[in-house]
Design goal:
heterodimer; A: alpha/beta; Rossmann fold; 7-stranded mixed β-sheet; two-stranded antiparallel ribbon; elongated; B: mainly beta; SH3 type barrels; 5-stranded antiparallel β-sheet
Chain lengths: ~725, ~80
């Protein structure tokens, strides 16, 4: 089976292209990226009735081959490049029966590329409800193609697509429109200059150079000598081309496609009136937002706790079962903890994408954009910025990718730059532990101070995003016409299968994409923390052992032992006779042994590579109220914020990530004067503010680099956000202290 | 000259021409072409953007863009 047929699925957005793809390929699909850019590339394999196999490529949705975004350029680049290994033997153009006229525009363009094409008319189950009648065989003649009438919702017509693909060699490959009709003189000249080349392809190469981004574009050949016409003139020709195409389409549909407008229901109009109402519209939107927050922060805590426990248990099991040694340590303390740090975010990511894909599939997202556009504009943002800002509360990475739909480069860039201010889920564990430590109990209007603080931190993130957007709007001198335009698709019940695939895919790409980085950092951290070259490090056992013999255990350890014994005595397992018996002595010995091990680990860490690094940065973080250990945690957080708790856990030599234990340990930590807790209101607030503003995420920087195609913007983010965070944290600490 | 902005909600108009030739090609491709009918479906709560139905395509555009689409208003069409 070496010679598979290459099939490309092409179609307008909202035509159910993904559903067709899912039904053709089932679970046999893989998602990757186009080389060098972050446009998703979905491929799958489909078995055809004649026994051969087809490689199905799901191309990004596009309205036409005149591209306005990166996603769309991918389509044109592939279709113009015969040497591309994915170049299709046959193109399957997906259309929606309700919007057939508009969908055919793209179809005629594909036809004109002389690629054998099949037309799929989807959502045929809606025909009778919408009063549509269609004469398929006549339309096939008019368009010079084969048509499959499909309903992905009911699973009808998929087999017909397969047999049409298998039979692709019998498809016509002549075009629909004679390109030279657009401007006979100009095109005749062009043809004379390139007698070997196809006119429509030449035309695309000339016009499609006006690119959304300066992404390196593989020119098919050098036709620039002919783009002597001004941009405006070219645009006029494109208008003329569109008019000609619609003439052809109207002619083809005149006898074959009829709509009885009376049958169209008012469901859409009614729903639109409610969902974009000046009061209810916003109320419903914020209600949905609240629900999403609830899901991300509350519902996902159950599976998260479960995952956390399982990983802790697995690490424990590994340590007790595998032979002790460097390899086991690396596995249990480095790799396993690292993987746990990735997997623990899976529930949140899954919930977020579940909601986002439900909102998108149903057609609601467009209404939100419609509602919010005017509100966002004074800040230099677009209605379409709302989607990234919302998804930024889970993770800035998919959020930055979601800015691709924004037409205006300036609005898009601003959205990309400010999105990392929104409180992403990685900040949450940091906030939670600090709030529990430094914010006093008590309540205001029935809401606890702690909950209020958390809410304020979220508002702070959004506020900062909006504020810096309006500053950027004033500073950035980018001329970019806003050609805001969004389709308001028909409301549809989301297809379970599509939603499930989206959630699965996004979660997978999170685990394997961002996961790799987190994993690498965990391993590096583990290595730096458990190795050292100084004599203190090498002789830690003797030094600490000596100290304990001379001075006894540290006050912290003695506290630890006493607390555990108190807990033991208070528990039900102990009856009175036992109270002073052997079991207590036994327990005391065990605890002392454990405390000693912890003190050794702690001493070692202080003299490991990471310990020295921490001491080196201490002068920088001291004015913010942090000691060297927090400094290290902050520093490692620049790779990914969620490392903070884990790093402190390691540094404070608490074996597990269990929050209660690490919280107690942090609460017991004293500042250098030895009188005040290290984590007090001043240093705690200072830390939270630092995390709220600092750009501590390598993956986000990497994605911003890819999306803006320049190091300038991510570097600007890194420097500006971090310096700002430092100054705010400094001010807060100095005032509160 | 009347533009899309002069339509009442629910009112129809027939596109005549565009005051700016730099109108995005995408808009034309969605069916916004001279001779086609536009219906103003709804105006956003803050007056902008506006939601139109042109040639069966339901799209939202900003006022600045809508202003460039010139048309003949069908005065009798103010149904719903």
């Amino acid at each position: 089976m070496s010679e598979n047929i290459n099939v490309a699925l092409i179609g307008n957005p909202n035509t159910g292209k993904t559903s067709v793809f899912n039904q053709l390929t089932g679970l046999k699909q893989k998602v990757g990226n186009y080389p060098g850019i972050t446009v998703e590339k979905k491929q799958g394999v489909c078995k055809l009735p004649n026994g051969t196999k087809a490689n199905i490529l799901d191309l990004p949705g596009t309205y036409s081959l005149n591209t306005t975004s990166l996603d769309e350029s991918v389509v044109v680049e592939l279709l113009l490049n015969k040497n591309n290994k994915d170049y299709p033997d046959v193109a399957v153009v997906i259309s929606d029966v309700e919007n057939l006229k508009r969908n055919l525009l793209l179809f005629t363009q594909i036809k004109d590329l002389k690629i054998p094409s099949i037309l799929v008319i989807n959502m045929s189950d809606r025909m009778s409800r919408k009063g549509i009648s269609l004469d398929v065989s006549v339309l096939e003649q008019k368009l010079d193609t084969k048509i499959a009438l499909v309903s992905t919702r009911k699973g009808q017509g998929i087999d017909q697509i397969k047999s049409l693909i298998a039979d692709y060699q019998n498809l016509s490959n002549t075009g629909n429109l004679d390109t030279s009709r657009i401007a006979p003189e100009y095109f005749n000249q062009l043809q004379k200059a390139f007698p070997e080349e196809d006119l429509y392809k030449l035309w695309l190469v000339i016009t499609q150079d006006v690119n959304f981004l300066s992404i390196e574009k593989k020119r098919i050949q050098d036709a620039t000598s002919f783009s002597t016409k001004s941009e405006n003139e070219l645009k006029k020709l494109q208008h003329r081309e569109t008019v000609l195409r619609y003439q052809f389409i109207n002619n083809a549909l005149k006898e074959t496609y009829k709509v009885d407008t009376n049958a169209a229901t008012g469901f859409r109009a009614t729903l639109d009136k409610i969902l974009t109402h000046k009061v209810f519209g916003y109320v419903i939107f914020f209600g949905i937002l609240l629900l999403i927050f609830q899901a991300i922060f509350d519902w996902s805590s159950y599976p998260q706790d479960f995952i956390d426990e399982q990983f802790a248990a697995a690490a424990e099991w590994m340590k007790s079962t595998l032979p002790a040694g460097v390899f086991t340590d690396l596995l249990a303390e480095g790799i396993l903890v690292g993987i746990g740090g990735i997997v623990i975010f899976v529930p949140q990511i899954a919930f977020l994408f579940l909601f986002i894909s439900l909102l998108e599939e149903s057609g609601y997202m467009s209404r939100v954009v419609f509602l919010m556009d005017r509100l966002m504009r004074p800040f230099g943002l677009s209605g379409k910025s709302v989607v990234p800002l919302i998804s930024g509360t889970a993770c800035a990475i998919p959020a930055v990718m979601a800015t691709r739909t924004i037409e205006s480069w300036k609005e898009r860039l601003i959205t990309i730059l400010v999105t990392p201010f929104t409180t992403c889920s990685a900040r949450l564990p940091v906030y939670l532990i600090l709030i529990a430590l430094v914010i006093p109990d008590g309540s205001f209007l029935g809401i606890s101070y702690q909950a209020l603080t958390l809410m304020l931190l979220y508002l702070l993130g959004f506020g900062m995003a909006i504020l810096s957007a309006s500053v950027l709007n004033k500073i950035l001198k980018i001329k970019s016409r806003s050609l805001f335009m969004i389709e308001m698709p028909t409301y549809r019940l989301p297809l379970f299968k599509n939603v499930a695939y989206t959630v699965l895919e996004k979660t997978k790409s999170f685990v394997f994409g961002a996961g790799k980085i987190i994993l690498a950092i965990s391993i590096i951290l583990w290595f730096l923390g458990s190795n050292g070259i100084s004599d203190q490090f090498k002789n830690a056992e003797e030094i600490v052992g000596q100290r304990i013999e001379n001075d006894g255990l540290s006050p912290y350890s003695q506290n630890y032992i006493q607390n555990n014994i108190d807990a033991y005595l208070a528990s039900d397992v102990v009856n009175d006779q036992d109270a002073n018996g052997e079991s207590i002595t036994q327990l005391r010995l065990e605890l002392a042994e454990r405390a000693k091990a912890q003190e050794i680990a702690s001493y070692k860490l202080e003299h490991s590579f990471i310990g020295y690094a921490g001491k080196a940065i201490e002068p920088i973080v001291k004015p913010l109220g942090y000691d060297w250990k927090i400094g290290i945690a902050v520093l490692t957080s620049f790779a990914a914020r969620e490392v903070f708790v884990g790093t402190l856990a390691t540094i404070y030599s608490v074996g597990s990530d269990e929050e209660e234990t690490i919280k107690n340990r942090m609460a017991a930590e004293l500042d250098e004067t030895g009188r005040k807790p290290l984590f007090n209101l001043a240093s705690g607030i200072s830390l939270m503010l630092f995390y709220a503003f600092a750009m501590q995420c390598m993956s986000t920087l990497a994605i911003v680099k890819r999306e803006t195609n320049s190091w300038k913007w991510p570097m600007l983010q890194l420097v500006f956000m971090s310096v700002f965070a430092y100054l705010v944290a400094l001010t807060a600490f100095q005032i509160l202290n | 000259m009347a533009t899309v902005l002069d339509l009442q909600e629910g009112q129809l108009g027939v596109i005549k021409e565009f005051s700016d030739t730099a109108l995005p090609v995408k808009l034309l491709e969605l069916g916004c072409l001279p001779g086609n009918t536009v219906k103003l479906v709804q105006i956003a709560p803050l007056k902008d953007p506006i939601y139109i139905d042109v040639n069966g395509s339901h799209i939202a555009i900003r006022r600045s863009l809508a202003q460039q689409i010139e048309l003949d208003i069908d005065e009798d069409s103010t149904s719903v």
